[in-house]
Amino acid sequence: YLQEDYFLKDTVKNEEVEYYVSLMESHKNIQCIQLTDQAVVADGDSEYKDLNKVKFKQRYRVSCQAALWRKSELLKLIREYE
């Protein structure tokens, strides 16, 4: 997910994004990977390189920041009118 009004200030790190996509494809328990450090507060290291766990119930866990979401998880979280 990425809103269209963001400004890219540097080149996109395609290798990093591809790594995260492949990580999600091979580990079905990963529901979301935030691509910025502005959305959620880390809650400790995860078992995956360069990723942190986040608290399930925290403000802005679902936000408009750039992220890779498992579609089924995101659909469970949005309200019917959204």
Automatic annotation (TrEMBL):
The name this protein goes by in its record: Uncharacterized protein
Organism: Saccharophagus degradans
